[in-house]
Protein backbone atom coordinates (compact mmCIF):
# COMPACT_ATOMS: atom_id res chain seq x y z
CA UNK A 1 0.00 0.00 0.00
CA UNK A 2 2.99 2.30 -0.47
CA UNK A 3 2.79 5.38 -2.68
CA UNK A 4 4.97 6.16 -5.66
CA UNK A 5 6.45 9.17 -3.84
CA UNK A 6 8.17 6.87 -1.33
CA UNK A 7 11.71 5.61 -1.90
CA UNK A 8 11.32 1.90 -2.62
CA UNK A 9 14.61 0.67 -1.16
CA UNK A 10 17.71 2.43 0.14
CA UNK A 11 19.73 -0.75 -0.37
CA UNK A 12 18.71 -1.07 -4.01
CA UNK A 13 19.29 2.62 -4.61
CA UNK A 14 22.92 2.16 -3.58
CA UNK A 15 23.49 -1.21 -5.26
CA UNK A 16 22.03 0.09 -8.53
CA UNK A 17 24.33 3.11 -8.37
CA UNK A 18 27.59 1.29 -7.65
CA UNK A 19 29.43 -1.56 -9.32
CA UNK A 20 32.68 -3.50 -9.20
CA UNK A 21 35.13 -2.63 -6.46
CA UNK A 22 33.09 0.36 -5.31
CA UNK A 23 30.10 -1.87 -4.60
CA UNK A 24 32.30 -4.42 -2.83
CA UNK A 25 33.75 -1.72 -0.62
CA UNK A 26 30.27 -0.43 0.18
CA UNK A 27 29.17 -3.95 1.09
CA UNK A 28 32.24 -4.49 3.27
CA UNK A 29 31.75 -1.26 5.19
CA UNK A 30 27.94 -1.13 5.38
CA UNK A 31 26.90 -4.79 5.57
CA UNK A 32 30.07 -6.11 7.19
CA UNK A 33 30.94 -8.49 4.35
CA UNK A 34 31.78 -8.15 0.67
CA UNK A 35 29.22 -10.75 -0.40
CA UNK A 36 25.66 -10.81 0.94
CA UNK A 37 25.68 -14.63 0.56
CA UNK A 38 22.36 -14.71 -1.24
CA UNK A 39 20.45 -17.99 -1.10
CA UNK A 40 18.74 -19.33 -4.19
CA UNK A 41 14.96 -18.97 -4.07
CA UNK A 42 12.76 -21.40 -5.96
CA UNK A 43 11.60 -19.94 -9.27
CA UNK A 44 7.98 -20.87 -8.61
CA UNK A 45 8.08 -18.92 -5.34
CA UNK A 46 9.58 -15.85 -7.02
CA UNK A 47 6.77 -16.01 -9.59
CA UNK A 48 4.17 -16.53 -6.84
CA UNK A 49 5.51 -13.54 -4.91
CA UNK A 50 5.36 -11.34 -7.99
CA UNK A 51 1.80 -12.43 -8.71
CA UNK A 52 0.74 -11.68 -5.13
CA UNK A 53 2.74 -8.49 -4.70
CA UNK A 54 5.27 -9.50 -2.08
CA UNK A 55 9.05 -9.48 -2.19
CA UNK A 56 11.19 -12.52 -1.31
CA UNK A 57 14.83 -12.26 -0.31
CA UNK A 58 17.13 -14.88 1.25
CA UNK A 59 20.66 -14.79 2.66
CA UNK A 60 23.09 -17.03 4.51
CA UNK A 61 25.22 -16.50 7.62
CA UNK A 62 27.81 -19.30 7.76
CA UNK A 63 30.09 -20.04 10.71
CA UNK A 64 33.57 -21.54 10.79
CA UNK A 65 33.73 -25.33 10.75
CA UNK A 66 34.45 -26.80 14.21
CA UNK A 67 35.97 -30.14 15.20
CA UNK A 68 33.84 -30.76 18.30
CA UNK A 69 30.45 -29.38 17.23
CA UNK A 70 28.31 -29.98 14.20
CA UNK A 71 26.83 -26.96 12.40
CA UNK A 72 23.56 -25.79 13.96
CA UNK A 73 21.68 -24.62 10.90
CA UNK A 74 18.28 -22.94 11.25
CA UNK A 75 16.27 -21.00 8.71
CA UNK A 76 14.39 -18.00 10.05
CA UNK A 77 11.82 -15.97 8.19
CA UNK A 78 10.30 -12.56 8.91
CA UNK A 79 7.19 -11.10 7.31
CA UNK A 80 6.41 -7.43 6.80
CA UNK A 81 2.94 -6.61 5.54
CA UNK A 82 0.52 -3.81 4.83
CA UNK A 83 -3.16 -3.94 5.70
CA UNK A 84 -5.39 -5.50 3.05
CA UNK A 85 -8.56 -3.39 2.88
CA UNK A 86 -9.61 0.10 4.07
CA UNK A 87 -9.90 0.68 7.82
CA UNK A 88 -13.57 1.67 7.60
CA UNK A 89 -14.53 -1.93 6.81
CA UNK A 90 -15.87 -4.28 9.56
CA UNK A 91 -13.27 -5.60 12.01
CA UNK A 92 -13.75 -9.24 11.11
CA UNK A 93 -13.56 -8.49 7.39
CA UNK A 94 -10.31 -6.54 7.84
CA UNK A 95 -8.73 -9.34 9.84
CA UNK A 96 -9.77 -12.06 7.40
CA UNK A 97 -8.37 -10.06 4.48
CA UNK A 98 -5.00 -9.83 6.24
CA UNK A 99 -5.15 -13.57 7.02
CA UNK A 100 -5.60 -14.32 3.33
CA UNK A 101 -2.52 -12.39 2.23
CA UNK A 102 -0.43 -13.75 5.13
CA UNK A 103 -1.48 -17.32 4.29
CA UNK A 104 0.23 -17.04 0.92
CA UNK A 105 3.45 -15.69 2.42
CA UNK A 106 3.57 -18.36 5.14
CA UNK A 107 3.09 -21.13 2.59
CA UNK A 108 5.96 -19.68 0.57
CA UNK A 109 8.15 -19.57 3.68
CA UNK A 110 7.33 -23.20 4.39
CA UNK A 111 8.20 -24.20 0.82
CA UNK A 112 11.58 -22.50 1.29
CA UNK A 113 12.23 -24.57 4.44
CA UNK A 114 11.79 -21.88 7.10
CA UNK A 115 11.92 -23.26 10.66
CA UNK A 116 11.10 -20.15 12.73
CA UNK A 117 8.81 -17.43 11.39
CA UNK A 118 8.06 -14.05 12.99
CA UNK A 119 5.39 -11.57 11.96
CA UNK A 120 5.36 -7.81 12.60
CA UNK A 121 3.88 -6.04 15.61
CA UNK A 122 0.07 -6.26 15.74
CA UNK A 123 0.18 -7.95 12.35
CA UNK A 124 -3.51 -8.87 12.11
CA UNK A 125 -4.89 -5.34 12.42
CA UNK A 126 -4.28 -1.71 11.40
CA UNK A 127 -1.85 0.10 13.71
CA UNK A 128 -4.69 2.08 15.26
CA UNK A 129 -2.92 3.00 18.52
CA UNK A 130 -1.94 6.31 16.93
CA UNK A 131 -5.60 7.42 16.71
CA UNK A 132 -6.09 7.12 20.50
CA UNK A 133 -9.65 5.94 19.77
CA UNK A 134 -10.96 2.90 21.62
CA UNK A 135 -13.67 1.80 19.22
CA UNK A 136 -13.68 -0.11 17.02
CA UNK A 137 -9.96 -0.81 17.38
CA UNK A 138 -10.13 -2.56 20.76
CA UNK A 139 -12.32 -5.15 19.05
CA UNK A 140 -9.19 -6.44 17.33
CA UNK A 141 -7.86 -7.52 20.76
CA UNK A 142 -8.02 -11.29 21.19
CA UNK A 143 -7.12 -14.19 23.43
CA UNK A 144 -3.48 -15.25 23.17
CA UNK A 145 -4.46 -18.91 23.49
CA UNK A 146 -7.75 -19.16 21.61
CA UNK A 147 -8.03 -15.99 19.52
CA UNK A 148 -8.51 -16.06 15.77
CA UNK A 149 -4.86 -15.20 15.00
CA UNK A 150 -3.53 -18.03 17.14
CA UNK A 151 -6.03 -20.52 15.73
CA UNK A 152 -5.14 -19.41 12.21
CA UNK A 153 -1.39 -19.80 12.74
CA UNK A 154 -1.54 -23.09 14.68
CA UNK A 155 -2.59 -24.81 11.46
CA UNK A 156 0.65 -23.80 9.75
CA UNK A 157 2.86 -24.51 12.77
CA UNK A 158 1.65 -28.10 12.91
CA UNK A 159 1.41 -28.66 9.15
CA UNK A 160 4.92 -27.42 8.41
CA UNK A 161 6.72 -28.22 11.69
CA UNK A 162 7.41 -24.52 12.12
CA UNK A 163 7.75 -22.24 15.15
CA UNK A 164 5.68 -19.09 14.56
CA UNK A 165 5.92 -15.87 16.58
CA UNK A 166 2.66 -13.94 16.44
CA UNK A 167 2.65 -10.40 17.88
CA UNK A 168 -0.97 -9.45 18.61
CA UNK A 169 -3.13 -7.10 20.63
CA UNK A 170 -4.10 -9.44 23.47
CA UNK A 171 -7.33 -9.36 25.45
CA UNK A 172 -6.49 -10.85 28.85
CA UNK A 173 -9.87 -11.98 30.15
CA UNK A 174 -8.30 -13.67 33.18
CA UNK A 175 -6.94 -10.36 34.44
CA UNK A 176 -9.84 -7.96 34.09
CA UNK A 177 -10.00 -7.80 30.30
CA UNK A 178 -6.67 -5.97 30.25
CA UNK A 179 -5.20 -5.29 26.81
CA UNK A 180 -1.53 -6.15 26.22
CA UNK A 181 0.89 -5.69 23.34
CA UNK A 182 1.83 -9.37 23.24
CA UNK A 183 3.89 -11.85 21.28
CA UNK A 184 2.56 -15.42 21.21
CA UNK A 185 5.07 -18.15 20.42
CA UNK A 186 3.49 -21.18 18.75
CA UNK A 187 5.82 -24.15 18.58
CA UNK A 188 5.94 -26.84 15.92
CA UNK A 189 3.46 -28.93 17.95
CA UNK A 190 0.89 -26.12 17.96
CA UNK A 191 1.37 -25.13 21.67
CA UNK A 192 1.42 -21.51 22.78
CA UNK A 193 2.94 -19.25 25.42
CA UNK A 194 4.93 -16.10 26.24
CA UNK A 195 7.61 -14.67 25.46
CA UNK A 196 11.05 -16.48 25.41
CA UNK A 197 11.43 -20.11 24.40
CA UNK A 198 13.83 -22.97 23.94
CA UNK A 199 12.59 -24.48 20.67
CA UNK A 200 13.71 -27.44 18.61
CA UNK A 201 15.63 -25.00 16.42
CA UNK A 202 17.30 -22.79 19.02
CA UNK A 203 16.65 -20.37 21.89
CA UNK A 204 14.53 -17.42 20.79
CA UNK A 205 13.31 -14.23 22.45
CA UNK A 206 10.99 -11.41 21.44
CA UNK A 207 11.71 -7.72 22.08
CA UNK A 208 8.49 -6.00 21.00
CA UNK A 209 8.67 -2.64 19.21
CA UNK A 210 9.63 0.11 21.68
CA UNK A 211 11.70 -2.36 23.67
CA UNK A 212 14.42 -2.01 21.05
CA UNK A 213 15.22 1.45 22.45
CA UNK A 214 16.26 -0.06 25.81
CA UNK A 215 19.71 -1.72 25.78
CA UNK A 216 19.00 -3.58 29.03
CA UNK A 217 16.16 -5.47 27.37
CA UNK A 218 18.60 -6.80 24.79
CA UNK A 219 21.18 -7.49 27.52
CA UNK A 220 18.81 -9.63 29.59
CA UNK A 221 17.84 -11.75 26.59
CA UNK A 222 21.53 -12.48 26.09
CA UNK A 223 22.10 -13.25 29.77
CA UNK A 224 19.20 -15.70 29.60
CA UNK A 225 20.84 -17.50 26.69
CA UNK A 226 18.93 -16.25 23.64
CA UNK A 227 20.49 -17.11 20.29
CA UNK A 228 17.96 -15.28 18.11
CA UNK A 229 16.02 -12.20 19.22
CA UNK A 230 13.11 -10.96 17.13
CA UNK A 231 12.03 -7.32 17.22
CA UNK A 232 8.52 -7.03 15.70
CA UNK A 233 7.79 -3.34 15.20
CA UNK A 234 5.53 -0.73 13.64
CA UNK A 235 7.32 2.56 13.11
CA UNK A 236 7.11 5.35 10.57
CA UNK A 237 9.42 7.49 8.46
CA UNK A 238 10.35 10.80 10.02
CA UNK A 239 10.12 9.35 13.51
CA UNK A 240 12.69 6.59 13.72
CA UNK A 241 14.09 5.63 10.32
CA UNK A 242 17.56 6.98 11.14
CA UNK A 243 17.61 4.67 14.18
CA UNK A 244 16.19 1.59 12.48
CA UNK A 245 19.40 0.22 10.96
CA UNK A 246 21.33 0.86 14.18
CA UNK A 247 19.49 -0.50 17.20
CA UNK A 248 18.91 -4.18 16.40
CA UNK A 249 22.31 -4.38 14.74
CA UNK A 250 24.03 -2.92 17.77
CA UNK A 251 22.17 -5.38 20.01
CA UNK A 252 23.44 -8.32 17.95
CA UNK A 253 27.00 -7.06 18.32
CA UNK A 254 26.81 -6.24 22.03
CA UNK A 255 25.17 -9.55 22.99
CA UNK A 256 26.65 -12.02 20.48
CA UNK A 257 23.36 -13.30 19.09
CA UNK A 258 21.30 -12.95 15.92
CA UNK A 259 18.66 -10.21 15.71
CA UNK A 260 15.71 -9.98 13.34
CA UNK A 261 14.17 -6.53 12.97
CA UNK A 262 10.68 -6.59 11.42
CA UNK A 263 8.73 -3.45 10.53
CA UNK A 264 5.24 -2.88 9.20
CA UNK A 265 4.97 -1.47 5.66
CA UNK A 266 2.52 0.87 3.93
CA UNK A 267 0.45 3.95 4.77
CA UNK A 268 -2.76 3.41 6.75
CA UNK A 269 -5.64 5.90 6.52
CA UNK A 270 -8.24 6.04 9.30
CA UNK A 271 -11.85 7.26 9.15
CA UNK A 272 -11.45 10.08 11.70
CA UNK A 273 -8.79 12.76 12.00
CA UNK A 274 -6.41 12.72 14.96
CA UNK A 275 -3.39 14.67 16.16
CA UNK A 276 0.05 13.42 17.16
CA UNK A 277 0.66 15.95 19.92
CA UNK A 278 3.29 17.76 17.85
CA UNK A 279 1.42 20.96 17.11
CA UNK A 280 0.70 19.98 13.52
CA UNK A 281 -2.80 19.92 12.00
CA UNK A 282 -5.03 16.91 12.52
CA UNK A 283 -4.65 14.15 9.96
CA UNK A 284 -5.95 10.70 9.08
CA UNK A 285 -2.57 9.02 8.50
CA UNK A 286 0.09 8.35 11.13
CA UNK A 287 2.82 8.28 8.49
CA UNK A 288 4.47 5.80 6.16
CA UNK A 289 5.54 2.51 7.74
CA UNK A 290 8.83 1.98 5.95
CA UNK A 291 9.35 -1.79 6.21
CA UNK A 292 13.09 -2.36 5.65
CA UNK A 293 13.17 -5.53 7.75
CA UNK A 294 16.63 -7.06 8.16
CA UNK A 295 18.68 -9.70 10.00
CA UNK A 296 22.00 -9.17 11.79
CA UNK A 297 24.56 -11.78 12.84
CA UNK A 298 26.58 -11.75 16.10
CA UNK A 299 29.61 -10.44 14.20
CA UNK A 300 27.62 -7.36 13.11
CA UNK A 301 27.21 -8.37 9.47
CA UNK A 302 23.68 -7.92 8.21
CA UNK A 303 21.37 -8.52 5.28
CA UNK A 304 20.05 -5.82 3.00
CA UNK A 305 16.63 -4.64 4.10
CA UNK A 306 13.35 -5.55 2.49
CA UNK A 307 11.44 -2.95 0.50
CA UNK A 308 10.17 0.30 2.04
CA UNK A 309 6.86 -0.01 0.19
CA UNK A 310 6.08 -3.69 -0.46
CA UNK A 311 4.98 -6.67 1.58
CA UNK A 312 7.89 -9.04 1.96
CA UNK A 313 9.38 -12.28 3.21
CA UNK A 314 13.00 -12.21 4.35
CA UNK A 315 14.71 -15.56 4.90
CA UNK A 316 18.06 -16.06 6.60
CA UNK A 317 19.93 -19.34 7.02
CA UNK A 318 21.85 -19.12 10.30
CA UNK A 319 24.53 -21.29 11.83
CA UNK A 320 23.99 -20.76 15.55
CA UNK A 321 27.56 -21.89 16.24
CA UNK A 322 28.51 -18.37 15.21
CA UNK A 323 27.14 -17.06 18.54
CA UNK A 324 29.81 -18.83 20.60
CA UNK A 325 32.52 -18.20 18.03
CA UNK A 326 31.95 -14.45 18.29
CA UNK A 327 31.80 -14.61 22.10
CA UNK A 328 35.24 -16.24 22.00
CA UNK A 329 36.54 -13.65 19.54
CA UNK A 330 35.41 -10.47 21.29
CA UNK A 331 35.13 -11.61 24.91
CA UNK A 332 32.33 -9.21 25.81
CA UNK A 333 31.04 -11.62 28.45
CA UNK A 334 34.43 -11.62 30.13
CA UNK A 335 34.93 -7.86 30.03
CA UNK A 336 31.46 -6.68 31.07
CA UNK A 337 30.95 -5.79 34.76
CA UNK A 338 27.53 -7.15 35.69
CA UNK A 339 28.34 -6.97 39.39
CA UNK A 340 29.15 -3.28 39.09
CA UNK A 341 26.03 -2.59 37.00
CA UNK A 342 23.83 -4.34 39.56
CA UNK A 343 25.32 -2.33 42.41
CA UNK A 344 24.99 0.97 40.57
CA UNK A 345 21.46 0.34 39.30
CA UNK A 346 20.31 -0.77 42.76
CA UNK A 347 21.35 2.64 44.05
CA UNK A 348 19.95 4.53 41.05
CA UNK A 349 16.37 3.34 41.63
CA UNK A 350 16.29 5.03 45.05
CA UNK A 351 14.80 8.52 45.32
CA UNK A 352 17.80 9.84 47.20
CA UNK A 353 20.27 8.70 44.55
CA UNK A 354 22.92 11.20 43.55
CA UNK A 355 24.59 10.71 40.15
CA UNK A 356 28.28 9.90 40.29
CA UNK A 357 29.71 13.09 38.80
CA UNK A 358 33.25 14.21 39.51
CA UNK A 359 33.30 18.04 39.70
CA UNK A 360 35.86 20.06 37.77
CA UNK A 361 37.25 21.74 40.87
From TrEMBL:
Keywords linked to the UniProt accession: Hydrolase
Domain named CN hydrolase: residues: 81-320
Pfam families: CN_hydrolase (PF00795)
Tagged with keyword Hydrolase: yes
InterPro entries from the UniProt entry: Aliph_Amidase/BUP (IPR050345), C-N_Hydrolase (IPR003010), C-N_Hydrolase_sf (IPR036526)
MF (Gene Ontology): beta-ureidopropionase activity
Coiled-coil annotated residue ranges, if any: none
GO biological process, one term: beta-alanine biosynthetic process via 3-ureidopropionate
Protein name listed in UniProt: CN hydrolase domain-containing protein
Organism: Parnassius mnemosyne
Upper lineage: Eukaryota, Metazoa, Ecdysozoa, Arthropoda, Hexapoda
